[in-house]
Amino acid sequence: MADVQIKRALIAVYDKTGIADFAHTLVEEFGVKIISTGGTARHLSEAGIPVTLVEDVTGFPEMLDGRVKTLHPRIYAAILADRDNPEHMGQLAEQGIEPINMVVVNLYPFAETIAQPDCRFEDALEMIDIGGPGLLRAAAKTHKHVLVVSRAHEYEVVLARLRDWGDESAREDTLRSGAFRAFWNTTAYDAHVATWLSLNENDGLPDVRVLRLWNWGRLRYGENPHQHAELLALYGAADTFDLISAETRCGDQKRFSFNNYVDVSAALELCAELTRELPRPNEPRTSVRGSLPTAIQTPACVLIKHTNACGVGAAVDPIEAYRRAYLGDPNAAMGGVLACNFNVTPDFATAVMETYDRWGKDAGTGAFFVEVWVAPSFDDDAVNIIRTRKKWGERARLLDVGDMTAPPNPDVLDLKRITGGVLMQHCDLLGLNEEQWEVVTNRQPTAQEMTDLRLAWLVCKHTKSKAITICKNGMLIGNGAGEMARVMSCRIATWWADDSELRTQDSGLDEATPVAASDGFFPFRDGPDILMDAGVTAIIQ
Question: What is this structure's pTM?
């Protein structure tokens, strides 16, 4: 790639954050001459930066309320000329046009404008940028000779690269990545405009939906070893949690598999909802959904295997919460994903690393390990314990996901592929909607039953249909999932619960009676009969 010398820069930005400092450095440190348009030129001039107006370059005034400023051959020829083509350079010289080597442009805030409830059609129309995308595309096309900067947050990086401009490899990467980001940004911009223009007057929905996906690379394999898989980030999704870019305290250097990510996502979603919804045991639920202060959050642990919860525990003591989660099904817990909603301390890390020695003697597995461990944060001493106490700790992937009390974004979409298309819905954010609960029996649930019904309801929500969930004293003791008939899920849940009872009957968990949740209504009494025969005393459906 040619040795690009940055001598003239065209700067025309709507968002002027940091632009004066950036331009000042370009002028003072690199000797760059600045060309600019109306509002940007005034902003830079007021900051004491020498600026040449675009109209002085073109010999043509801005017109149509600024709609026409840079749309001129003396601007576009200065950007688009191929410096390696003698004919191009000869034509520039013949017309007295000096090349432009840098274009700094950001676009009108169209998406932000149409998001305002009082936005009129005319307001949106004026926010459709014409000159900005044109300049970005022209500069990006000629990125072999022109450096293009399209976002304010890139300024410091660009300046650092300019200070190392003699490094050919770094220079080429800067030019090429700038071009990519310019096209990426104009693509998103055009998508917003197209979607807005496609709004259907009948139902208010757009005729098109544009999804942008960022490829983070290949996974070890797909759902099965013979399947190719890639990790794609839904750009601009603004989800509450971002597993893709979460800080990884990586043990095993192998890439995550498809199934790892699916299970980690399931564990995080359930654990976060328990965090938002459950008050501490024996404390009244007085706060509204999603706004419980951190001081009364229930410590909770979730163990996931094949997307479903095989262990869930909630207790005032984090170690007790983990013990309950593990004892739900020690066989399934082995090799699963662990999520907890509190900072991992050395004491808690020690308990998990000693799981089998402390509580596993009746599990029949003879071993225990965790593939991935998710938490808001990990103490450094806890990480050291995890890495050194057991061989499996060297390989476990630890994910810091941050605060789990944050409310979910209601605008995030849930997508599911079907043959020939995609189904789309808003995520299910309905948690403990207790204001809608109705007791249809003569007997009211006890306080303990209500506490366990809340837990069962939330676990059931995150269990694959048809789901029957049995909980007791802050612990998942039975989960029937994925069956075609609800009565079969009832049988599986009670079989599992019977087995759990044998492990927990001497551990203080037999003080309560089991309760159950169903993710759909019971069409016949056969399902409830199975549950009641197993000792269930309250059911929520």
Answer: 0.80
